[in-house]
Amino acid sequence: MAEMVRNFIGGEWVEARGGDTFETINPATEEVIASVARSTREDVDAAVKAAKQAYPNWRLVPAPRRGEILYRVAQLLQERKENLARTMTQEMGKVISEARGDVQEAIDMAFFMGGEGRRLLGYTAPVEMPNKFGMALRDSVGIIGIITPWNFPIAVPSWKILPALIAGNAIVFKPGEDTPRTAAEFARVFGDAGLPPGVLNVVHGAGEAGEALVSHPGVRVISFTGSTQTGVKVYTRAAELGKKVCLEMGGKNAIIVLDDANIELAAKAIIWSAFGTTGQRCTATSRLIVQSGIRPKLIDALVEQTRQLKIGYGIDESVQVGPLVNRKALEKVEYYVGVGRDEGVDVLIGGGRPNLDKGYFYLPTLFDGVSPDMRVAKEEIFGPVLSIIEVKSLEEAVEVNNGVPYGLSSSIFTENVNAAFRAIRDLTTGIVYINHGTTGAEIQFPFGGTRGTGNGMREAGQTALDAFTEWKSVYVDYSGRLQRAQIDNDAVLGGLGN
C-alpha cells in the first residue's frame, strides 16, 4: 500500500478536509510512490489561521534565537541529506548526485540565514533637528504564501522559507504537486529543529490550493517560482488585492562561445548546463550561440560527449541523465522537437525516446541550423534540447542573447578579458558567467532575472530579505521638550517640512 502524505497545519499532520487525494509517481519506473492530500480552500484557510495564531509570538522571539533554530535546521539537513536526496530522486527523477546538491543548497542557506539573526541590517543616518536620532529597521510582514515547483523541491523552498522565518514571519507553503513527499520530509526537519507549531504550514495540491493561497486576505506576501504563464496570473491576482509579490519564472538561457575559447572547457560546461537535471532547470542552457570559426570543432565535441551520456534511473550513481518529471513534460519535449523539425533544424543527435521499458525518458538532443527567430530558439522547452545558433561576432552574439522574452542567466567562453568585460556590461540577464555554464548559483549572491523571468525581486543573499520585510523609519527626540524647526521658506517650498 502506498504511503500517505498529509498536510502539515498547526504542527499536526492532517488529511485534506474534503478527504480527496492524488498520487505521486516515480518518473523512472512509473510506480505509485504515495497518496497525497488534495487541498482545497478550506485547507488553505485552516493553514492561514494556524499561521496567524502563531505569528504574534514568533515575531517577538529575538532574531538571534530564531537564527539558532535555523542552525539546527541546517544540522538536521546534514544528518538526513542522503535520505532526502534519495526521496527526491525517486519522486522527480533528478540523478542522485544532483539531488545531494539540491539538499546542500538548503543546508548552505540555513546556515547563511541563521547568521542573519545577528544582523538583519538596518541603518542610521543624520537627522535635521538637534537632539534627535534617526534609524531605519527591518520589520516582519505577517503571513507569507510560498508556492514552489518540483524541479528543486528543497533548494527553492529554502530560498524562500528561511529568509521569511528569520525575519519573523509565519508561512503557508504549497509545494509542487510532483514532489509532495520531499516537501513533507523537508517540513518535518523544521518541526524537529524546534520551530513552534503553526509558524510553518504545508498544504499539498494543485491549482485550486495555489489560487486559494494567492487570494486569501490573510496572506500579505506571495513568493512564487514556476512558469511565466502561471506567474503572470499570480501577479495579476495578488496586485488586485494589494499584496507584495516576488516572482521567479522562466528562462531561455544561452552560452556564447567565441573563437578563442577553450573548447574542452566549453564543451563540458555546455553538456552539464544543457542536460543536467534533464534540462529541467530555470537556469539550464537551451541556446548555444557560437562564433563561426570554432563552431565545427565544438559541435564535434558536443556530439561525442552527448553520445556518451548514460540515461536511466538516477538512483544508480553511474547515471548522468534521468527522466522528465511526468508524462506531460515528456509530451511537451516531443512536441517541441516536432516544432523544430517543422522549422527545418538539423537533429544532430537524439530527437526521440531511448529504448527503455518504463519511465518518462527522452534522449539528449542537439539542434543545429537554428535561427534566432525560430520558436525553438525563443520558447522555453524545459527538457534536454539544445539549439545551436551561429553568429559572426561578439556584438551579434550579445544581440541574439538579449533578444528573447527571458533574462535569467547567460554565459560567455572567451580568453579575451576585454570581450569578457564587454559581455558583463551588455548582457541583460540577472546572472552572468564567464567561462562557466549557466547553472550553479551560490546562496550568498542575489538570484533572479529580468524581463519575463521575474518582477525585479531577488532571492538569496541579503536581498532575499527584501520580499519578507517592511522598512520602519524611527525618529527619537531626546531633548526632553517640544522643539520647533527653524526652516526657511525655501526649504518649506522644497518639501522638507512635510
Kindly estimate the percentage of residues that lie in beta strands according to DSSP: 15-25%
Number of domains: 2
SS content category: alpha/beta
CATH level-two architecture of the largest domain: 3-Layer(aba) Sandwich
Number of helices: 15
User: Nearest-angstrom radius of gyration?
Assistant: 25 Å
Overall 3D shape: globular
Index terms:
498 residues; alpha/beta; Aldehyde Dehydrogenase, Chain A, domain 1; Aldehyde Dehydrogenase, Chain A, domain 2; 2 domains; 15 helices; 22 strands; 38% helix
Task: Explain this structure.
The protein has 15 helices and 22 strands. The protein is an alpha/beta fold and 498 residues long. The chain has two domains: 3-249 and 454-473, Aldehyde Dehydrogenase, Chain A, domain 1, CATH 3.40.605; 253-434, Aldehyde Dehydrogenase, Chain A, domain 2 (3-Layer(aba) Sandwich). The strands form six sheets. The chain has a seven-stranded mixed beta sheet, sandwiched between helices. It has a five-stranded parallel beta sheet with strand order 10-9-8-11-12, with helices on both faces. A three-stranded mixed beta sheet has the order 1-5-4, with helices on one face. Strand 6 and strand 7 form a beta hairpin. Helix 2 runs antiparallel to helix 4.
Task: Provide a quick synopsis of the model.
By secondary structure, the chain is an alpha/beta fold. It has 15 helices and 22 strands.
